[in-house]
């Protein structure tokens, strides 16, 4: 599989503190890559290193098969569109004037800029000043600016931040359309729910480390859902299991986290051996959100 972005041991230290540690990112060409993690986990710093806006302390970034560094940056950036932190654009100018600036700066044909504006469905809002735009409109104009150069790779840092549900859905739909048109999109969020249905690959960052990278199905498979045990004496059963497994009472059931099949059989044998009647053992249904919360410890989510 070809990767449009690949990093090896990518690390950023500020003073003694490593804010991004040893990342081996693999972004397959043509996917929507959801880059998830709580606030402060290092997503923006990583994206800035991918764009060579921040110099890595160690490790390597390869984009489109080439090393990204100060020397190669200019050429590689010609094929990358990005939106990092607040939306760009001069507030006192209209959308059209801002787009014209982008066109002139990059020396682009007019049709290309118009196509970018239509893609984000902003063509009817272009004569308003940017300061009168809603946040969603500003984000969409920012994405149009990033798209104007017809990038192969689009890097978007929290494009849904601060948007209402309708605005979030618009961005989601836009990302899907871009992916269908062959653009690889890397998009960060601190909320799994904002991108999990759009992203085909997920990378999860926690405390500067990549704690998961793979598909949604792989993420679900990587988790061990809690086991719920129903029996004749839930309190005594919980007391027997608690020290070793961290179990707790959940209604009339005993909820036991992190048990694989063998450990489940051992727990049941222990209870039966202690004279407790076990009449039900089942695995809890787990949502992707539960798995994400488990992995990141729920920090900042
Ligand atoms: N220039 C800098 N100097 C020192 N520390 C920094 C600098 N830039 C970022 N950090 C620290 O690095 C950590 C990661 O920040 P980063 O912005 O990459 O996280 P994030 O996951 O994008 O979070 P957020 O969504 O809140 O922006 C934070 O603790 C931040 O304070």
TrEMBL record:
Coiled coil: none
Entry-linked SUPFAM superfamilies: P-loop containing nucleoside triphosphate hydrolases
UniProt KW keywords: ATP-binding, Nucleotide-binding, Transport
Ranges of residues in domain ABC transporter: 5-232
Residues making up the signal peptide according to the UniProt record: none
GO function term, MF aspect, one: ATP hydrolysis activity
Pfam family, one: ABC_tran
InterPro entries noted in UniProt: AAA+_ATPase, ABC_transporter-like_ATP-bd, ABC_transporter-like_CS, P-loop_NTPase
Family, similarity comment: Belongs to the ABC transporter superfamily.
Entry protein name: ABC-2 type transport system ATP-binding protein
Species per Swiss-Prot/TrEMBL record: Allonocardiopsis opalescens
Record lineage: Bacteria, Bacillati, Actinomycetota, Actinomycetes, Streptosporangiales
